[in-house]
Write a structure and sequence with these properties.
Strand content: 25-35%
CATH architecture of the largest domain: Roll
Radius of gyration: 16 Å
Distance between the termini: 26 Å
CATH class of the largest domain: Alpha Beta
Strand order of the largest sheet: 1-4-3-2
Largest sheet: 4 strands, mixed
Structural class: alpha/beta
CATH topology of the largest domain: 2,3-Dihydroxybiphenyl 1,2-Dioxygenase, domain 1
Number of helices: 2
CATH superfamily of the largest domain: 2,3-Dihydroxybiphenyl 1,2-Dioxygenase, domain 1
């Protein structure tokens, strides 16, 4: 599972980026809500403000940008998911309750595969985050 990248394609870092027009709310959701960390930011770079959010010492992170002149539009579908794998239903329930208190209740997943194994929550832009229970066979939600 953790094999080295092929020599002909030596990727060292992954960034998943998208635009928003609710940058402050998105930062609040991913940092205060989910508990990820802001690992970088920039202001007024060619008309964009942005933030990088991730886990410490990981080479994968999320970037959210906001342009001064416009909206990116709505989230494309309910199947565009960010899946975060967590160790137990206890951790997922605690995070879900915290997010609900912040105004982000769980939503029904589009794909029934996620039922009983995870909780789905929409971020401020309507993009879905799945909190997946790694031990779902022994520890259902």
């Amino acid at each position: 599972m953790h094999d080295n990248w092929p020599e002909e394609f030596p990727v060292r870092r992954i960034r998943i980026a998208r635009q928003t027009d609710r940058l402050a709310k998105v930062i609040e959701f991913y940092c205060q809500g989910l508990g990820l960390q802001q690992i970088g930011n920039f202001n007024n770079h060619s008309g964009y403000d942005g933030v990088m959010i991730g886990l410490p010492n990981w080479d994968t992170h999320l970037e959210f940008v906001q342009h001064q002149q416009g909206s990116p539009g709505e989230a494309p579908t309910r199947e565009n998911l960010l899946v975060l794998y967590l160790p137990s239903s206890r951790v997922i329930r605690a995070k879900t309750e915290h997010l609900e208190r912040m105004g982000y209740p769980a939503v029904e997943p589009e794909n029934p595969y996620w039922n009983g194994k995870s909780i789905t929550i929409e971020d401020p832009d309507g993009w879905r985050v799945v909190l997946f229970n790694l031990d779902w066979e022994n520890d259902e939600l």
